[in-house]
Amino acid sequence: MNFKTKIIFILILFLLLPACNNKSNSENNIESSKKEKFSKLHNESKYKKLLLDMKTLSYKKAEKSIKELLAKYPKSPELYYLYAVITKNVNPDPLEAIKILQAVVQLDDKYGKAWKLLGDLFYIRKNYKNALKSWELAIETMKDNANLYYRLANLYYSQKDYNLAIKYFKKSLKIDKKSEWSYYYLAEIYFRFLKQPQKGIEYLKKGLKALPKSKNLNQKLAIFYYDSQKYKEAIKWNKEVLKIINYDNFAIENISDSYMQLKDYKNSIKWLDKILKEQPKSVYYIKKKANIYSIDKKFKKAIELLEFAYRLNNSPNIKAKIAKLYLIMGNPKKYQEIVKELRNSKDSKARRIGRYLNPTGKNKNSIDYVPASNAGLELLNPKK
């Protein structure tokens, strides 16, 4: 660039500078005006009282304050957002809060918190399309919000769009390594739906490195191992659950079931007794214990338990199971007595069950004929 060109360039800059300054000053004045109004609002005693009322969940009081403030600051997106929060808590129908939030995002389309809450409310109303759209707009200004990614993932999961669910669960975990439910659902997707059980187990183990005391992750891992027929591993992880929470019905029952699958009937009964100690009159668990004795061919003990269960709820199904056990034990006389009792019952359900049972127990074509060698789960499968 020669000297003349340099001079022309400097003159152009000199002429343009005032215009640039004027534009810059104008923008600065607008920004300054916004900050001044913002500062003025935050210094209002009513605003401070409003926040206190919201903090103490006094939403009726807060509703009065917010209306007075909106009369003074009618174009404040922040106040409208707070008004939506109050309305959501005062009115069980989220429609009114949705209308207010739609006004907020018209005033400021970059208001991430408003888009997020709008998505939450659309989700409550099962308007999943608008929930997704709102959360995606919220993410534009809240890129580091793990909870938002989790919400999107969870919605895609509920719609069975597992690829997008995986994408957003993983994004949630990039931001928050302790997002318990992201690990949980990623594991569920891989194990149950994509048929990649090992990958599902790996995600649970990653989660447990970050959250070793998570009951949900420990329990889900135990279930996965049980479903994979790795019963010793299932027992191990259920016991981890019981280190976190002293008593858990599901974990104890699953340990009992695992021992039963391993044919360790003594330990299976021992663990089931822990539940029966807390729920001594639970027909479901009494029947389950009888079932274990039946598989272990301890038929007398099984019958004793079933008779106790029958005294508790008079179910003709239990009576039929007792009859079958007598037949397996080689006592057709007792079997026939029970069949007769059922057929002569005043209860229509009992009579119906009695008719299905072969009166002699000898007919192998009977739909209820059970050979002695098959005394097992199919005989006494307890139903809740």
Textual characterization of the structure:
The chain is mostly helical. Among the domains are: 41-143, Tetratricopeptide repeat domain (Serine Threonine Protein Phosphatase 5, Tetratricopeptide repeat, Alpha Horseshoe); 279-384. The protein has 20 helices and no strands. It has helices at residues 3-42, 45-55, 59-72, 77-90, 95-107, 112-124, 128-141, 146-158, 162-175, 180-193, 197-210, 215-227, 231-244, 249-261, 265-278, 283-295, 299-313, 316-328, 332-343, 348-356. Helix 8 (146-158) packs parallel to helix 10 and helix 13 runs antiparallel to helix 14. The longest helix is centred in the N-terminal third of the chain and has 40 residues, at 3-42. The chain is elongated, with a radius of gyration of 34 Å. The termini are far apart.
Task: Give a short synopsis of this structure.
The protein has 20 helices and no strands.
Overall geometry:
elongated
> Helicity level, as a percent range?
over 70%
Number of strands: 0
Major β-sheet annotation: none
Task: Please render the helix and strand layout as text.
Layout: H1 3-42, H2 45-55, H3 59-72, H4 77-90, H5 95-107, H6 112-124, H7 128-141, H8 146-158, H9 162-175, H10 180-193, H11 197-210, H12 215-227, H13 231-244, H14 249-261, H15 265-278, H16 283-295, H17 299-313, H18 316-328, H19 332-343, H20 348-356
What are its keywords?
384 residues; mainly alpha; Serine Threonine Protein Phosphatase 5, Tetratricopeptide repeat; 76% helix; elongated; disordered C terminus
